[in-house]
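Methods: example folding runs. The two proteins below were folded one after another, and each record is reproduced exactly as written to the output file, sequence line first and structure-token line second.
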Amino acid sequence: MLVQFLPADAMLAEISTLLAPVAAAIGYTTYKARKFEQTFPNIGELTDIGGYKMNAVHIPRPGTADLPPLVFIHGACGNLLDQIGAFLVPLEGRAEMLFVDRPGHGYSERGGQENAFPSGQADAIAKLMERRGIEKAIIVGHSFGGAIAAAFGVRHPERSAGLLFLAPATHPWPGGIDWYYHVATLPAIGWLFNHAIVVPLGLWRLEQATLNVFRPNLRPADYIAKTGPSLALRPRTFHANAADFTKLLQYLKAQSPHYRRITAPTVIITGDRDGIVWEHLHSQGLARDIAGSELVKIRGVGHKPDYLATDVAIAALEKIAGKPRDLQAAARIAEQRLSAGAAIAA
């Protein structure tokens, strides 16, 4: 039996026809990634921490400071603009502040393989603090940043003036993660997925995804415009984010038992309507594991207490710093405010 081959020219034409849409998609991703960076340019400063650079916005200690230095760690699919949007203005003039792009996120370089784990990222932040002259700070971690704040408290007690967890992801959970994180980390196929599929898919989902993060509460109208979530769709950033996710569950199974070693003053703030990170596993788990910690549950709040109950978070920072504050009363006041606001919106 003879096998019939296409002429060389015809074969090349066939291959070109097949590859053209892929090349177009990769070109579109490259174009959009540049646009994302033009829309949200780096407002921080890159600091070499030993072989790679971390990006952060550093607010020096003001003369009116009444709080210790504060270090803010954003969650998954985010960057330093998220925590800046919540805390920069209300805390202006009160503390030295460091808003960090986690390794591989925002404008920080990824560094080594250790930075795929919360422990590696905690160590990177400790090095950055040292480079920026911050001896000790209250570490504030939202969502995925909570796992890093917990690792920081375990690994760097001498640099931990206190820990504030906001809707933290810190303990093992039943189930898995979204399929696309697994695809994004596959050899070869992952590269193609990140460079050809993620941007159009992500832009299509961006509006709904950010609404879901705030659900059941309203997302601020200018949230996307101010916090740059599209930066997470850039191929290298998406790959780093996916690698973080694929390793998190096994990491937490191994490391969460060590939270009992944390001795820093600790407050955990969570909403009882969080559909992203289950508070009964994570926040209540932290309150159980960290001796002397205080759990503050705010009724009617979802995954963003940093934005919806910023006043409670600031009261928690004050209490960690040694000021007398009734955080449970502050939570009830926040609930009344949110309830009144929801009634007016309706």
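Second run, written to the same file directly after the first:
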Amino acid sequence: MIDNVLMEDKKEAVAAKVRYIDAEWKGRQDSPRIGSRESRRAATSFQDVTIYNARPRLIEGTADLDSSGFTLTKNDTSVKNFREDVEVAVAYYPEMQELIRRVTGAERVFVSNHLVRTEQPTSFNDGYARFVHCDYNLRRLREMSEDLLDKNEITPQEKWVYVWYNTWQPFDNVVENNPLAFIDWKSLPIDDVIDYYYTGYGSANLVAAPVYNPAHKFFYVPRMATDEVLVIKQLDSRPGHSAYCPHTSFDDPTAELDSLPRRSIETRLLGVFEGN
């Protein structure tokens, strides 16, 4: 769904390098564990990719959330300081819940958490994401969903269907470098997605990531403005729908040397489709 999103950048594509988990992990019995710069570098390698401008595809309707795993919309936020967690929870969470209801048609939406990323990270966990990954794993879809419903004192119903989303919005300034690249689900064989464990918070959480395949088609949104929101699919087990949208930050080789630092907030949300 696009809400008057303008083609502000005519750039067709950029050639860049992105890190993938090494292909040697595909088919192995064990899984990589990543939670620091050192473990990321040990388990991943750079690949040369072409990253296409998503704006034309979105505007012409050849990519959308359910078929490709991503869409772009608008949000004029009331938040003044994204570094204040209380303000974000009180003001921004309801904005994102309403946005997901509007864009997806979910009857209920619950926020799991948010993460602010800037040029001055406090740890590995809130630095720019530097390898292609998914935030979660389909094998944990029901467990994660029912855990979040339990925290909200909601009793799951038999017909409910669960889908997880990520929203990504810049603040302070237009994104001039370190934008988010994401893979079109239609170009991603599900067999390319393997398990890995994210250990950045001191515990091993089962998540997922693809290994490199030259067939993967990457997109990004050039010069995202502070009122634009990228919505990407995290988990969806419904037949005929995108299941994942792997993504990563990347260094844009066409960015000016004095480009402004990217500052962004992402929220992770559960959409509940009641199935009535």
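Comment on the second run: The helical segments are 37-43, 54-60, 85-104, 141-151.
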